[in-house]
Write a structure and sequence with these properties.
Length: about 210
């Protein structure tokens, strides 16, 4: 990692930030989980300043980004949220997408909305298992489960070794790459498997401590 500096929520001019980042000659530009509005502005500056390498994001509003940069410039970009019509998702996902588009043809179901839908699925599982919608009982029912059904498959509890509590639900997650202006699933990856490889865990811990997140 050659450049990593937090910016304030009041930031609207990302030109100097992107200039400073590009001066470090990065291999990849990642906007992580920064707000979609910021990502669009960062990518706009990267495009304006001539970046031709890979850009990545944990999640994004793809339509907001391509409103700022040419769609073809985003080809090869990597993220973790597919469109619901991706053939590598389940039949249920695809059918939901068709029903949504038929009912709301002018309203997109953006990548960001995945998070709310996935959270609602998890809550519904806990409520059914608990036999109630009472929050504490739903929580206990979820925590009592070794695996919890998730939109992308079974998920396990993790986080104690980093945050002190196993309150992070980790499923196998799809990785998307933009092909011809559309995010496509190219692989499914597991954080748990990634942490076991090489010194990945040490690298994660190093930066969490640097940013005072643990």
């Amino acid at each position: 990692m050659v450049y990593s500096k937090p910016f304030g929520l009041e930031t609207i001019d990302f030109a100097p930030i992107v200039t400073a980042a590009l001066a470090k000659k990065p291999d990849i530009i990642s906007t992580g989980a920064s707000y979609p509005e910021f990502q669009a502005l960062i990518f706009e500056q990267a495009y304006t300043q001539g970046w031709k390498g890979i850009v990545t994001s944990a999640c994004w509003d793809f339509k907001a980004i391509v409103a700022k940069v040419p769609t073809e410039w985003m080809d090869g970009a990597v993220s973790g949220f597919p469109d619901f019509d991706d053939p590598k998702l389940s039949k249920e996902h695809n059918e939901f997408w068709k029903a949504w588009r038929a009912k709301y043809p002018t309203h997109g179901f953006s990548e960001i909305v995945w998070e709310y839908m996935a959270a609602l699925d998890v809550w519904a599982y806990g409520a059914r298992k608990a036999g109630t919608v009472e929050s504490e009982k739903v929580y206990k029912a979820l925590k009592a489960s070794k695996e919890v059904p998730h939109s992308f498959g079974p998920a396990v509890w993790w986080g104690k070794e980093v945050f002190g509590l196993d309150n992070l639900l980790v499923p196998t997650w799809p990785i998307t790459e933009v092909h011809n202006g559309k995010p496509k699933i190219v692989a499914y990856k597991s954080l748990m498997d990634w942490l076991k490889k090489g010194n990945n865990k040490e690298i994660l811990t190093k930066y969490l401590k640097k940013w005072k997140l643990m």
